[in-house]
Amino acid sequence: MEAGTGYGRRARATRLEAHPIGYARTSTARQELVSQLEALHAADRHKVFSEQISTRIKVRPELEKALALARQFRDGPGHAGHLHRP
């Protein structure tokens, strides 16, 4: 950080390119993903992952994919990933 400027880390963070990621899930066949997906697309998510899976099931493949992509953006040069669930 330059002495007296107050920039440093904050200045670097503002130069990162954000890639918002969305995740939608329902747990029963009677529930629908449509409203969640519409909200994520309206929020201009870079990539949207969705699945219909019970809350009793602990392994959620689409959530794992979303988190893996967020980690790639986090660890990649000059990128920041943000996971959003409506």
UniProtKB/TrEMBL annotation:
Domain Resolvase/invertase-type recombinase catalytic: 19-86
Gene3D superfamilies in the record: Resolvase, N-terminal catalytic domain
InterPro entries in the cross-refs: Resolv_N, Resolvase-like_N_sf
One term of GO molecular function: DNA binding
Protein name (record): Resolvase/invertase-type recombinase catalytic domain-containing protein
